[in-house]
Amino acid sequence: MKAKKKIIKKVAKKKVVKKAVKKIVKKKPAKKIVKVKEKKIGKITHYFDKIKVVAIKLTDTLSVGDTIRIEGGENTDFKQKIVSMQFMGEKIKKAKPKQEVGIKVKEKAREGYKVFKI
């Protein structure tokens, strides 16, 4: 009789523990992964090392105030806001596709790196 009572108590404890675990698991909110939409807008054609400026051949429009991401190589992947932009030596606020614009960057970049608009 005592053995049966012990078994019944163990089974009852296991059920209580399982219910508690299920409640804990259910209460955790699911983490939402927010993906930022990025669009490839061009490619770096030249990097001027001393003045830290890149020349970008655009395939889409780009404006002052936009945020871009430059990706390439093993260690290069950074975001940056466009503060100023030049085309043919003159400041512009908006660039059209097929233009090659110059933008000052905060990190080193090389020819062939991809440029995305965020």
Structural class: alpha+beta
Put simply, the count of helices is 1
What would the principal axes of the Cα set say about the shape?
A: elongated
Kindly report the name of the CATH homologous superfamily of the domain at 39-117: Translation factors
In total, the number of strands is: 10
Report the radius of gyration as a whole number of Å: 28 Å
The main sheet orders its strands as 5-4-10-1-2-9
Helical fraction: 10-25%
For the record, what CATH class of the domain at 39-117 applies? Mainly Beta
Strand content: 35-45%
Low-pLDDT runs of 5+ residues are none
Mean pLDDT: 84
CATH topology grouping of the domain at 39-117: Elongation Factor Tu (Ef-tu), domain 3
What is the structure about, briefly put?
With 118 residues, the chain is α+β, with helices and mostly antiparallel strands. It has one helix at residues 2-27, and strands at 39-48, 53-58, 62-63, 67-72, 76-81, 85-87, 90-92, 94-95, 100-104, 114-117.
